[in-house]
Write a structure and sequence with these properties.
The complex is a heterodimer. By secondary structure, chain A is mainly alpha-helical. Chain A is 73% helix and 0% strand. The longest helix of chain A has 30 residues, at 76-105. Chain B has two domains: 8-45, no CATH class; 56-161, no CATH class. The chains are: A mainly alpha, B mainly alpha. Chain A: Keywords: Membrane, Transmembrane, Transmembrane helix.
Chain lengths: 123, 162
């Protein structure tokens, strides 16, 4: 980590841009999580961080550490794969839990299309 | 062959992961391959449905499309959050889409695609009727989400997983 000063400018610029992009998107996602009003809207905000927010940070890490270690450093890609394939699990659980609650309570903000259980009474 | 490698894709992916997580050497290649082989047998004992990919070229093409779409929708959703919902004009809503796709692996991939794309959230899917309930962050009038998802993602997935 102390060799950071050896990183040339042509590499430091894309790495910096990717880091700013990734952390910026993640920050925006968390702002959305606070700011948005409905539960279903809030489901979307964190995916900014798990999508390109994560991808940009991983890319920056691959670029920088490949240079610093003098060999392709690709194990960060494993993080990206696992984040990608595990996010839908939590998303679906949260979404379906909210849907279940809203249906049980007959929540007025739930539109007709989402009100009935799928397949029971096909529209 | 298929008795020794009941799940060639899984074993291959595990070997690749082992090599990524360690330094590449012949010893690690052999060790990783052995572990992947055993994992393949263990998976075979569970008798999951065999994954068969028919069109590798389409999978690569889909990957490119999805990467671009995720980038684009990231920008759209980020902009919507920054501008406080395009000045309060943003309306979210639910969309119900009838899917033809029945392969569980294809559906899993579709779920990953839709979840990784900010702006669409997979809420519920009914296996019998194939109906998918989707929540769309920015539902504009005239947008054909049903057609978009069926043509852009489902059609290639149907060909890949058959």
């Amino acid at each position: 980590m102390s060799h950071l000063e050896t990183v040339p400018l042509w590499l430091a610029i894309p790495v910096g841009l990717l880091l700013v992009l990734g952390s910026g998107l993640t920050l925006l996602g968390t702002i959305g999580l606070v700011q948005l009003k409905s539960f279903y809207d809030r489901l979307h905000a964190p995916t900014l961080g798990t999508g390109w927010g994560m991808a940009a940070i991983v890319l920056a890490s691959i670029l920088l550490f490949s240079w610093l270690e003098g060999r392709p450093s690709l194990h960060e890609a494993v993080i990206a794969v696992f984040v990608m394939i595990t996010t839908p699990v939590t998303m679906m659980m949260l979404g379906r839990a909210a849907l279940h609650r809203d249906r049980k309570e007959n929540a007025p903000e739930l539109p007709e299309i989402a009100r009935r259980t799928l397949g029971e009474d096909t529209p | 062959m298929s008795r020794f490698f009941p799940h060639p894709l899984l074993s291959l992916a595990l070997t690749a992961m082992w090599l990524l997580l360690t330094r590449f050497s012949l010893g690690n290649l052999l060790l990783g391959a052995a572990i992947a082989l055993i994992a393949g047998w263990a998976m075979g004992a569970l008798h999951p449905r065999r994954v068969r990919l028919r069109r590798w070229d389409l999978l690569a093409k889909l990957l490119c499309i999805v990467t671009w779409d995720i980038l684009k929708s990231n920008a759209t959703v980020a902009w919507a959050i920054l501008t406080n919902g395009r000045g309060g004009k943003r309306r979210s809503g639910f969309v119900c889409i009838p899917l033809e796709l029945r392969s569980i692996n294809g559906l899993a991939l579709l779920a990953i695609i839709l979840t990784a794309t900010p702006g669409t959230a997979w809420l519920e899917h009914d296996q019998d009727s194939g109906l998918l309930l989707l929540h769309v962050f920015d539902l504009r009038d005239g947008d054909d989400w049903s057609g978009l998802i069926r043509n852009r993602y489902e059609a290639p997935l149907l060909e890949i997983f058959g």
